[in-house]
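The instructor's notes for this session suggest beginning with a concrete chain rather than abstract definitions. Hand out the sequence below and ask the class to guess, before any prediction is shown, which regions might be ordered.
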Amino acid sequence: MGKYKLIAATGCATGIAHTYMAQEALEQAAKKAGVTIKVETHGQTGVDDPLTQAEIDGASGVIVASDVDVDADRFIGKKLIKVPVAQGIREPDKLVDRILNDANVPVYKSGSVKEKVQSDSNKGKNGDSLWNTIYVSLMNGVSHMLPFVVAGGVLVAISFFWGINSADPKSAEYNYFAYLLNTIGSSTMNLMVPVLCAFIAEAISKRSGMIVGFATGMIAFTNGTGFLGAIVGGYLAGYTIILLQHILKPLPDKLFRGLKAIFLYPVLGVLISGMIMWFISLPMKDLNVGMMNFLKGMENGSPILLGLIIGVMAASDFGGPINKAAYLTGTALLAQGNFYFMAGVSAACIAPPLATGFAVLFNPKAYSSNERSAGYVNFLLGSTHITEGAIPFAAKNPLLNIPSFMIGSSIAAILTYMTRIQVPAPHGGFIILPLVNHPFLWVLWIVIGALVSGALLAAIAGRQAKKHAVASDVGAIDVLTGERTEAEPEQSVQESAPTKENESFDPGEILTIDNIQLNVSATSRDEVLKYLADFAVQNNLADDADKVLTKYLKREQEGSTGMQDGIAIPHAQDATIHSSKMLVIKLAQPVEWQTFDDKPVDTIISFLIPANDSGAHLKYLSNTAKLLMHSDFIQELHQAKTKEEILNLIK
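After discussion, reveal the predicted structure:
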């Protein structure tokens, strides 16, 4: 079995999108950092690529980007970072850099020291990770509950094909098969409360917590406390087991481990947690009924306000706890036979990913090829009620983009509530259109909301693109400057795709001793660029110096290629350039160049790029960027006095 420098685990409440987006982000970040990584995913179908004990033992650090419990006790003795899954999507480079280079990352230990491993989201709270524990345990419960809700809800919804009262033996619409579907579906949906309760507890205190959680959840369900009772019961059961573990700690594990697990914890846990839940069920039930009645009243009396609230909640964190709060309320009302509320929730969840697709259609020049592809894919994801596809677009400019999503989601929800649309299934998106009472109208409202958000997103992206001079073609991120590179207008998206994975893209492959020049005289940045263009033609690397110079200057207008430590990396892409080549020149005197550290430049590493290079220049740039992250390389480059020294250093 191969060894991995890093290992990771990802998981989200739905186990659909976040899980695998975080996996991809971490893998790409590790690849960029030049280290190996294996990511264990906790998706809806279970655990994929599980980590073996040998892989855990061989890793130097662990990243857990998950909203569900991933059994971190396997990682005792390892440097470990725990963050929500969304952070794994937004900040993979930062997480990889921390686990590799930050000496303050704590080592994970079980028991009393376990709480020292904290989420990044809780920094500054006196080291307390209680919020992270609460959040992860809630998402763990939601993750395990959702399949029951979806399976049961869809079966109940299908039973309505034979009539709204087709499951009632006393009705003229009665149909035995519909009755069977309704009974199976209802029984499955009734498991929502005990399953939610059990797996909240399981995340807190493992198997013993789950057992007590199931029992407590059944009491909550029987007494009508709804999902509020499930949530309270889950934490009650989980921390009851924690309390019992503390009380029974004096009993040695070697003699009493089995007795504790099989007898003491479940019996005492169910007794304590069950009795507390029994006595708080009445006020919990009143609170649950009151909240549901309030929401039902808003459906009729204040559909605009209700739609606004649901739209803001659904588009605030795209599948996170706020979004899930709206969704859980919808499923609870759905179980009571209210099909109106879920219609608005579903509309508000479907609109954001569709909006990203419309945004890239409205303003394709403002987005990179990868972003455009993601937008097109989001038409499919959104149509199946997967909101998470909007996350990368929201994370790109959250202060402006998230409110844009909220506006579109609110419009979709408001229009849905105002026209009294009913959606009897808790998930599925447009797949369940045959079950919707006004399917075409519902789709129209969702599309209108998505179009509004899409137009706002496109306008914001266009403004940002203009501000940062985003290219209208390939638009790939230049890893050296953080700007987007520009390709020739005729270059296609396919042509900009990465080349074969087995190519090394070593910068030394495109540098020869003839393309190195020392003691070059120049008094300004533009003189340096003119020298490079002439030098390229002189060495038969390009045919037209003026065109190459124009591309150099155009690239600088988009964003300075000055780096730091006296180095600049200008590059030009033009049809008159024969093949990818590197030029290196050292100046007799430094010149002013906009750099990160505001210091003048005396060393230039330049790239000449043909019009159709299949994206290879990005690989060469990336690998050169890695070299520039090493202080010893920078020092040796500045100290090099001959062409041979520079060539050998870069090779």
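Then share the key points. The first helix runs from residue 18 to 33. The radius of gyration is 30 Å.
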